[in-house]
Amino acid sequence: MIRREFIRLTSLSVGALPFVGLQGYEGMSGLASRKSIKDVSLYEIFREPANQYRPMVRWWWNGDRVVGEEILRELDVLQAAGIGGVEINLIRFPAEADPMNTKALTWMSDEWIQVLKVALKGTKERGMTCDMIVGSGWPYGGEFLSREDQTQMVALGTKNFTGPAQVRMTRAELLDGVNPALVSPYKDSEKELFGLTLVPSPISTTADGIRLNEQVRDENIEFDVPAGDHVLYFLVKLTGFMAVINGAPGATGPVLNHYSEQAVARYLDRLSTRLSAKIGPLGDHFRAFFTDSIELEGANWCDDMFAEFRKRRGYDLSPWLPFVLFKVGEMGNAVTEEYGAKFSAGFKAQTDLVRYDFETTKHELFQERFVGTFAEWCKRNGVKSRMQAYGMELDAITAGMMLDIPECETWIRSEKIEDFGTGDYRQGRSYTMINKFVSSAAHLSGKQLISCEEMTNTDDPFHASLERIKLAGDQSMLSGVTQSVLHGFNYSPADAPFPGWVRYGTYFSERNTWWPYFKLWVDYKSRLSALFQQSVMQADIAILPPFADLASKYGFQRDPFPKTVDPPYLYKLWEVVHQNGSGCDYLTEDIIHQSTVGRGRLLFRDRSYKAIFLPDVESLHLITAKQLKKFVESGGTLLCIGNLPRQASGLVNNASESLVVHEVFQSLRKSYPLRTAVLHIDEQNLVNWYRDLQKNYALTPDVSIDRPTDFISQLHYVSGSRDVFFFSNYGPEETHTFEATVSLPGKTPWLWNPESGERAPYPTSGSKNVLSITLGPSESRLIVFEPSSIAADTAASVEISDLLPAATAHPRYEQIIPGPWNLKLIHVNGTTQSRVVEALVDLSQQDDLKSFAGTMIYSNRFQFDHHHQRVIIDLGHLHSVSQLEINGRHLGTRWYGVHTYDVSNALTSGRNEITIRVVSTLGDYMKFLLTNKTAQVWSRDTPLYPLGLTQSVRLLILP
């Protein structure tokens, strides 16, 4: 992107961002600096988080079969669970659900707006945030779109010939030969033949081709094929080829042309004109309007593409277009089969450069005409712009900086908690790889409100446990997220047959077994979000991905699930930076162009980087190379993985600019060998690879972790004069103990407990700056370093031992509570049964109980003769929620990790009574509802998970 366009785009919303202080909320958090946060009130915001910090839900208005009374009932359900807001998201009715004769309303009809008014009044009365999707489903569209406003794609077809020969074919034959494998085709698309070029194979230059464009409108096409192998490249323009995915009535039909500013403006203005006429100013009712996934199935065109390309790139695209396009497959991804002519090495190099120019032009047009138009429309209507601005069509960092609330997404693909994989970049990770790009965009533009579609689950939504939800939420925060939009809460009448209307996502429903305990996680996440939105994430390491190389070789990819990841470790690199105690952001070349350099730092607004990684970057803009040269000369560290950059990007003046780029990096390597490194990466052991690199290049971290591992990561935030560290263990089953050392003289560490809102001084041994931290599976710690003057005036309400999990290491003595156990089973289907079990086993392995879902109450009596000892009861690692009573005394609830309870003050010498309540997930039960269509759709292929107490209950007597 050219410099002036970047400035214009990023100024659309960033310059007007309001600063949000601690006492008010304007729907958007600005940059929090050390001087802007009042220390005395930050803890209160954390302890009692207001609604704007609480998780929101994506409220699926299934098929728009909605009525006002049910709207208000569901808002009450959500409010009672601690949810702070809703995103109204109308969507197609689930095919397997029973509509119960409920009328489907039409989007923007008078009836629909009347129900919307009920929802808006209801959220306002409850103090809840309300956002709404634009249109329905994704991407935008509707039956009302004129042909000129519908999405366009120029698609490629090829036919092989051997000459000499005379060829005669029909135009219809060629049009029929281009049929991209669309996931959501529109029934009334339009095709036209757009270009014809016959080329020899191999081909060395565009001049080798014979252009037959004068025949594109002829019914019969005739041409002579010279001797030898040839290929006919034919281009077909498709208009209105894609239908809105899962649109509700009134917003189905063809997708909008996102590359046309006029089409986008007409679509948005139609909505705002109609809606504001009925309800008044939109900003009085909505916090933000939302744009969901940019999944355009290969859309790449607008009527003035050739003119815009020439204006921006300085040459004619038309002779190159057949050779830079890939044949389009599913969801716009390039097909994998071989086709077309063989390219000489020189011609391939040139087409790669043109492809970069074409991909860059598409990004620019999309960001200006769609993202920019949307952001301006939101601003004009007094609402915030919120968007999942990533995909083939746009750059997540540049687009994210243009929006008030950039959004990413975090998925639950399996209830099983997996190790981090070294192969597939998704293995073990709940956050998608786009998250760090989106949060980087927010940090670079001074935003602390970073939204996330969280807990998206299209594989096994009924097995999702609160522990799995916590783990996904923690990973989401580690990627930079500060607000959850849960995916999703289904509009579903209370009397709908079980499990109700289910469209997508984790089963957030009052009918879920763990719903009475859901607020435990909601409060935990709310406190963290409140604190992080009032703080600034620290990062002094930057990563510049090989964007130009990716675009040239493969085209930009479909984030957040790219078909090609190049280099394979790209999305893992930020992880090892955080796992080793530092923080990082991803950058673009435009960010580097806009930065200043000084004292070994690259400075962009309030961000400052001491080291920049170039992961297998071969091509760079000449301006980027020169700026990186200044950075190294000023004392900065440039870490090139795999190779030094060696060429310029783009076709125009490439030879001369490539020579300069090559010379820049060769001279840096020669003059500053210690600050211009060429590194060989160890992809199988990235954590220790980075740890060694930290030492070798003096990359002192914010917090030094003595035993870094794949399973422990951290964040460092600053809020006023406080330094905030969040540590998380996302490993499947191991406990990790490590020392964390920080250099914060004059500050005292406190443990802030997000589960309870309480705090206490954190124990240190010898130095306030050295912390011993033990994290069991799925555990996290929030440690806040406060100035001693503040800490001295702050009284701790509890002891540190009350805030930490009950320790089980190295017991002096262990006692098993023997059977038999009385077991009462309260099923979600309303039945109850009781039995006696001799031993504790996994009930999912018993034929008569493997379909159970609900509450299991285990009771027993046991003898205990170790009075005045510290005693822990250990239930093990359960796929459940548990509660414990000893002698009628309630001792708490555990919903993640190892279920341990300190029972020291509840036991008596002699006979004791124990009652353990275990609440299962719904997944096993759903598998066996063989006549329930909804259950079968979502559970047919899922595994069984452990049920109940699966191991002996142990009493651990500690020293």
Describe the structure in your own words.
This protein is an alpha/beta fold and 959 residues long. The chain is 26% helix and 26% strand. The protein has 23 helices and 41 strands. The strands form 9 sheets. Strands 1-2-3-8-9-10-11-12 form an 8-stranded parallel β-barrel, surrounded by 6 helices. A 6-stranded antiparallel beta sheet has the order 13-25-26-31-28-29. Helix 9 packs across helix 14. The protein starts with a helix and ends with a strand.
Structural topology:
Elements: H1 3-10, H2 39-47, E1 56-62, H3 68-80, E2 85-91, H4 110-125, E3 129-133, E4 152-170, H5 171-176, E5 190-200, E6 210-211, E7 220-239, H6 261-279, E8 288-291, H7 305-313, H8 321-324, H9 345-380, E9 384-387, H10 396-402, E10 405-411, H11 435-444, E11 451-456, H12 466-478, E12 483-490, H13 518-533, E13 536-537, E14 541-543, H14 547-553, H15 573-579, E15 584-586, H16 589-594, E16 596-598, E17 601-604, E18 607-609, E19 611-615, E20 619-620, H17 622-633, E21 637-641, E22 647-648, H18 654-671, E23 676-679, H19 686-696, E24 703-705, E25 712-719, E26 722-729, E27 736-742, E28 747-752, E29 759-761, E30 770-775, E31 780-787, H20 788-792, H21 800-803, E32 813-816, E33 821-827, E34 832-837, E35 854-864, E36 870-877, E37 881-886, E38 889-894, E39 898-902, E40 910-919, H22 923-927, H23 933-939, E41 954-958
Parallel strand pairs: 1-2, 1-12, 2-3, 3-8, 8-9, 9-10, 10-11, 11-12, 14-15, 14-19, 19-21, 20-22, 21-23
Antiparallel strand pairs: 4-7, 5-6, 5-7, 13-25, 16-17, 17-18, 24-27, 25-26, 26-31, 27-30, 28-29, 28-31, 32-41, 33-34, 33-35, 35-40, 36-39, 36-41, 37-38, 37-40
Helix pairs in contact: 2-13, 3-4, 6-9, 9-14, 10-11, 12-13, 15-19, 17-18
